[in-house]
Amino acid sequence: MDIFEKDLSGAMVSPDEPGYDKLISTIFDTMSTAAEMNAKGWLTPEEVHEYLHRITGREIDKSTTLLPPFYVDYGKNIRIGKGCWIQQGCTFFDRGGITIGDGVFIAPKVNLITINHDPNPDNRSATYGRPIVIEDKVWIGIGATVLPGVRIGYGSIVGANSVVTHDVPPMSVVGGNPAKFIKKIEAGSKK
């Protein structure tokens, strides 16, 4: 297993192991591409999609919109569905894997963070990842942070400035720090 596979698997990855310099170099290359996109000023949707292709290594459906600036570390472990809307100033640290379903709305300044450090202070530079999965038709409010290993269920809403530390059931509203269940969403509800 190379360092990239090990990183994505959730195993602890240390700066002392072979290949770590290649991992960090790839991260800096991706960050450079994102910085180039962010510095361009106004871009057409087609130009943004070209940058996203360079960042993720895959085509993003034309029905999905991302508004720069966009901040990312690795980039290659991001999967974005159709009909998504991702606002300005979002940060995706995807080394653990980020999967975004169809019809997802992500407000400005949302952070999706899949990486954590070893709690042992003598090994704190080592990291491990856990995937984030955002199911179809989720809405994540402005300034929210989703932490490693979280699954947000179909149709759910994450309130503004929330910190999501645990899975969110489908059709639920959560909010706060840490995010807690607020209410169920009834199908066809206008509130």
Automatic annotation (TrEMBL):
InterPro entries xrefs: Hexapep, Hexapep_transf_CS, Hexapeptide_acetyltransf, Trimer_LpxA-like_sf
Gene3D superfamilies: Hexapeptide repeat proteins (2.160.10.10)
This protein's record includes keyword Phosphoprotein: no
Naturally occurring in which organism (per UniProt): Bacteroides gallinaceum
Family that this chain belongs to: Belongs to the transferase hexapeptide repeat family.
PROSITE patterns xrefs: HEXAPEP_TRANSFERASES
Pfam family, one: Hexapep
Entry keyword set: Acyltransferase, Repeat, Transferase
UniProt name for this protein: DapH/DapD/GlmU-related protein
